[in-house]
Amino acid sequence: MEVVIVPDARAGGELVAEAMAQLLRRKPDAVLGMATGSTPLPVYEALADKVRSGAVDASRARIAQLDEYVGLPAGHPESYREVLRRQVVEPLGLGMDSFLGPDGAAEDVQAEADAYEKALAEAGGVDLQLVGIGTDGHIAFNEPCSSLSSRTRIKVLTEQTRADNARFFDGDIAQVPHQVLTQGVGTILDARHVVLMATGESKAEALAATVEGPVAAICPASALQLHRHATIVADEAAASKLKLADYFRYAYANKPSWQSI
Ligand SMILES: N[C@@H]1[C@@H](O)[C@H](O)[C@@H](COP(=O)(O)O)O[C@@H]1O
């Protein structure tokens, strides 16, 4: 995996948005897997700027959802479908016909998960999957000890993740659902390129386990070590516990100029 240490979240956002733009120039109907949370926001802002300025045409892009709360009523502002509609689909000038995602309000949740796997396969698979990381090393909503070959399915959140996400629910953990639908670790590994973005000190420990620890289900993000094209984009604070940080900086500074992330 390549580890790119950037000065701040804004620089990371620009780098990842440019990789998405390059992909769209090469493959205009690419499937972009988009994550929720605070971390990817600079990517979405930078990509929308590129679309507005005409630097890239995203009109044929397809947007795929990573995970979703179970049981929030359709249209709930914190359902990830709504979050991605506000933060990605609309700013890129797309309609929801470009969007792929499971319905967290479906009655038969496992059937919905299976249908989502099928929809992703029929769309030709995800070209670039952006993920964040939880403080416990989760990717999407694959909590510690998730199967590293899991597919989209229902999961129960840890208390820590619910506490971390309570800020989106008026700071009230009681409003954060216990159950979620999430792409599995195996589903994420099927994407052609996976980009994990991490910013801030609170992610430093999980990031060190992801990059330099063993591949282990206790840190689901460590499964990215098995991916042939995984890129970690971390700011200085998130990278602060990496033992090989100097090597990663050196490698990035000396890579071929034609090679993007
Ligand atoms: N399901 C999401 C993850 O996809 C995200 O990576 C994580 C971290 O969010 P943040 O980027 O806000 O720290 O939050 C949630 O748990």
TrEMBL record:
<comment type="pathway">
    <text>Amino-sugar metabolism; N-acetylneuraminate degradation; D-fructose 6-phosphate from N-acetylneuraminate: step 5/5.</text>
</comment>
<comment type="function">
    <text>Catalyzes the reversible isomerization-deamination of glucosamine 6-phosphate (GlcN6P) to form fructose 6-phosphate (Fru6P) and ammonium ion.</text>
</comment>
<feature type="active site" description="Proton acceptor; for enolization step">
    <location>
        <position position="67"/>
    </location>
</feature>
<dbReference type="InterPro" id="IPR006148">
    <property type="entry name" value="Glc/Gal-6P_isomerase"/>
</dbReference>
<comment type="similarity">
    <text>Belongs to the glucosamine/galactosamine-6-phosphate isomerase family. NagB subfamily.</text>
</comment>
<feature type="active site" description="For ring-opening step">
    <location>
        <position position="136"/>
    </location>
</feature>
<dbReference type="GO" id="GO:0004342">
    <property type="term" value="F:glucosamine-6-phosphate deaminase activity"/>
</dbReference>
<dbReference type="InterPro" id="IPR018321">
    <property type="entry name" value="Glucosamine6P_isomerase_CS"/>
</dbReference>
<feature type="active site" description="For ring-opening step">
    <location>
        <position position="143"/>
    </location>
</feature>
<feature type="active site" description="Proton acceptor; for ring-opening step">
    <location>
        <position position="138"/>
    </location>
</feature>
<feature type="domain" description="Glucosamine/galactosamine-6-phosphate isomerase">
    <location>
        <begin position="10"/>
        <end position="229"/>
    </location>
</feature>
<keyword id="KW-0119">Carbohydrate metabolism</keyword>
<dbReference type="Pfam" id="PF01182">
    <property type="entry name" value="Glucosamine_iso"/>
</dbReference>
<dbReference type="InterPro" id="IPR037171">
    <property type="entry name" value="NagB/RpiA_transferase-like"/>
</dbReference>
<keyword id="KW-0378">Hydrolase</keyword>
<protein>
    <recommendedName>
        <fullName>Glucosamine-6-phosphate deaminase</fullName>
        <ecNumber>3.5.99.6</ecNumber>
    </recommendedName>
</protein>
<dbReference type="InterPro" id="IPR004547">
    <property type="entry name" value="Glucosamine6P_isomerase"/>
</dbReference>
